[in-house]
Fold:
Amino acid sequence: MPSPVLWCLAAFVCGSIPFGLLLVKLAGKGDVRAHGSGNIGATNVSRVGGKALGIVTLLLDIAKGFLPIFLAKRAGLSPDLLALLALAAVLGHVFTPWLKFQGGKGVATALGVILAVDAQLMILPMGVFILALWLTRHVSLGSILAAAMVPVTPIIAITAYGPLGATLLKDRGLVLPWLALAILVIWKHRENIARLQAGTESKLWGAAKEDAHVQG
Structure:
């Protein structure tokens, strides 16, 4: 079996594939980074290349997070290593070396890695995302709050269902990568946070979308 380092490297490389950039170029629409928000995620791809291209980008960004973790899980890697691989895949998307370490925000890829590790980990984040979107119509706020919920489920699981006498410190190898992943995604939304505070962030419906809005 390949070493954990090689698994992490493979997850990082897989996560680093800039599908949004490639699809827009293949569609003859130029460089997606030169339009709209400049982001390579699904939202900006939809803005530049149309909704169909945006949906394909979303699915591929999810898949590139899902695939390496799914294969590692099938190979029998432990939950703490799977969490580390999940972080590596999202890091690859956010800091893709093919684009001078400038990538997307990691939301779709994070969704893919979580689904691969354990779909139950998505219940709380997805519920929070849907509720926030329904109440505020801000995709960015829903994504930020959902990311904040990602490490909560492992903490609850460890506390409620862990081995007798287990402590959070003992299981830090499982929790810390999820915590780092959540912080990374929230940090990538710092411009959205500033616009939310200023009241200038665009909404998904019911108001005109602003070119400055970024997601993906």
The CA atoms of residues 163 and 175 lie 15 Å apart. The chain has one domain: 4-198. DSSP finds eleven helices and no strands in the chain.
